[in-house]
Amino acid sequence: MIQFDTIFLVDDDPINNLINKRLLGKVGIAENIIEFLEGEEALNKLNDIDSSESLLIFLDINMPVLNGWEFLNKYQETFANRCDKIVILSSSIDYQDRFKAQGYKIVSGFLEKPLTLEKIKTQMEKYEQE
Question: Does the global pTM surpass 0.85?
């Protein structure tokens, strides 16, 4: 399985972040897992992460202050030189959200909550085929 230097969990629900952090910790695909309750905090932290590091971001869509779409727009504007993997992790089952996500070249996947071992495995297999 692919290894990442760091995983960002960007979700305004601390319980989801806790569960996902434990689950990802069991899989062992990253050295560091950092949780963020706001998208703006995650964007600010990106300034501290070297662009050569491999980073996987799990991003919720529906968040207060800065939602997932706004996060993606700011990310594209500010960090266009980065090659991070961004996966939407949302409770949304709206087809339009999936379609909108496909419009972002930086989004490499769209997963419905809850995150599971099988969903992680499937997503990692996509990266191995790239």
Answer: yes
